[in-house]
Specification:
Length: 279
């Protein structure tokens, strides 16, 4: 994607990547959260030049199915497949168990076998009360598949299907999954109810302790406390690895003291998934 459309403060402008990367740093930081694909209008990202010499580029995780800017890749094919699978589950079931530890991209065949599930660390305790028969009957959804399907416009965001995220904690999907741009903030952390926030990362701050989602500039996700563990798990080495990455996390959204910024506080270091670009 050589061009991106930026809509900022009521003005729309199309930038070529060569011009965009020459803008002053402060302008880049302002505009990069408001980029779109010029062909399909999908929300887009800007990635800086990498430390090992990869060129700066525009891209999007949200290209329409027919958009010519959306190059086919194993990652994109998997995302589209996940969206189809999730739509099938939503259409056929009334309840899903959410598994924060599901490993879906390693081997989709393994993830589909109910018999392999109890072996996955940590997930068995949250649903032991449901009994074996129930475990096999109920569909299981993990963060990666949920995120991929939402990025590709699955029905999950609007569905009435019940999602059990822990023992006895059930939410309707439409009340659980919230795009970062639609995040509603409570007055304080203790007043906030947890939700599953999702979208893409526009960029991180210089110290990589703060994630800024795309398509909004009043939401921030502090990760300082969990940073080492999260970066190790998702193989994040530099800021560029986070630019354009998909992000889903379970957390609470509240206003900062000045009420200028919505903060999303992570539940813990495990309830987060980052879909780094595989290129
Ligand atoms: Zn597109």
């Amino acid at each position: 994607m050589l061009d991106a459309v930026c809509t900022y403060a009521g003005t729309q402008k199309t930038y070529n990547i060569l011009n965009f990367q020459k803008l002053p740093e402060t302008d880049i930081e302002k505009y990069r959260q408001h980029l779109k694909c010029p062909k399909c209008g999908g929300q887009a990202y800007y990635r800086k030049k990498s430390s090992d010499g990869k060129a700066a580029c525009f891209g999007s995780r949200y290209h329409g199915d027919d958009c010519k800017e959306g190059n086919s890749s194993a990652q994109r094919e998997r995302e589209v497949r996940h969206a189809t699978e999730v739509n099938q589950i939503v259409a056929a079931s009334s309840e899903i168990i959410f598994d924060f530890f599901a490993k879906e991209s390693k081997s989709s065949a393994e993830a589909r076998q109910p018999s392999s599930r109890p072996k996955q660390g940590g997930s068995n305790t949250t649903r032991s009360h449901t009994g074996n028969t129930e475990q096999i009957r109920l569909k299981v959804l993990g963060m990666e598949k949920a995120l991929n399907s939402l990025m590709h416009g699955s029905d999950l965001a609007e569905a009435d299907i019940l999602i059990e995220i822990g023992q006895g904690y059930k939410y309707k999907a439409k009340n659980l999954f919230v795009n970062f741009a639609d995040a509603e903030a409570a007055d304080s952390l203790k007043d906030a109810r947890p939700k599953m926030f999702w979208g893409t990362i526009s960029h991180a701050d210089v110290d990589m302790e703060w994630l800024n989602p795309s398509d909004c500039d009043d939401v921030g996700v502090p990760i300082k406390r969990y940073k080492d563990e999260i970066f190790k798990r998702f193989k994040v080495n530099e800021r560029r690895d986070l630019e354009g990455a998909g992000l889903m996390l379970f957390g609470k959204c509240f206003w900062n003291a000045q009420r200028t910024r919505k903060i999303i506080e992570l539940w813990n270091e495990e309830r987060i998934f980052i879909s780094v670009l595989e290129d």
